[in-house]
Specification:
Length: 238
């Protein structure tokens, strides 16, 4: 499987200075998956690792997601495979666990969880897996960092800063006002790994229209405290 990472470095002021000059300010860099660990040391607000969709993926998830799946739990770095299997255990029918693709998928989530633990330098993280996504409005997550992988269905839609009206976003305007350049909308592909950095200058993103109404399955990784503090995050867009 080939991994390519795009890193978009965004300096808000620098960006707007360039924008005023009519220059596209996005800087895209391709690096190896192994360098994803360095995300925490960069100024990137969004990194995307491109991956191919495994051959059996769509047929496996098409059947699995006939019933809603919304589960979460804590993943421990040194026991990530065991942690994920434990979380999935009661929610995945036994016949799916016997499928050869199941182990491939669980190992993938385990490997990515370990990478995220290393990025945030933590022995544990919060893990969520959901078949329902409903973030219609463009938003910035109110978390320091978040990793997303859409295993089935359309991945996250996002806006490059040059196509974003941040003032419209912070003034509570709707999507039509937030999008400055409609043709600049971007979409993260299925199975790609995306890490968003939060904060005022973060990348605006949303659930794409098709994923609002079609079957989907997305993994979300957050800091360990996220699930414990979920009450505190009740008012944020997930
Ligand atoms: Fe989000």
């Amino acid at each position: 499987m080939q991994y390519i990472i795009f890193q978009i470095f965004l300096n808000y002021n620098f960006f707007h200075n360039l924008e005023n000059l009519g220059i596209n300010m996005s800087y895209v860099e391709k690096i190896d998956l192994n360098n994803l660990i360095n995300f925490s040391k960069t100024n990137s607000y969004l990194s995307i690792v491109e991956r191919e969709i495994p051959r059996l993926s769509n047929s496996f998830f098409e059947n699995l997601i006939t019933e809603p799946l919304n589960i979460s739990g804590k993943i421990f770095k040194n026991k990530s495979l065991k942690s994920i299997k434990h979380i999935l255990n009661k929610n995945i029918p036994d016949n799916y666990k016997k499928h050869s693709f199941y182990n491939h998928w669980v190992k993938d989530m385990s490997n990515i969880s370990n990478i995220f633990c290393n990025i945030i330098d933590s022995d544990s993280i919060s893990f969520s897996l959901s078949s329902s996504r409903g973030c219609r409005r463009y938003h910035i997550d109110n978390v320091p960092m978040r990793l997303l992988v859409t295993y089935y269905g359309d991945g996250t839609e996002w806006l490059p800063p040059n196509a974003t009206n941040y003032d419209a976003y912070y003034n509570g305007k709707n999507n039509e006002n937030i999008v400055k350049i409609d043709t600049e909308k971007k979409f993260i592909d299925t199975w790609d790994i995306a890490i968003f950095r939060g904060g005022e200058k973060g990348i605006l993103h949303r659930t794409p229209d098709r994923a609002l109404h079609s079957p989907t399955l997305q993994m979300r990784l957050d800091y360990s405290s996220f699930l414990n503090d979920v009450e505190r995050y009740n008012n944020i867009n997930l």
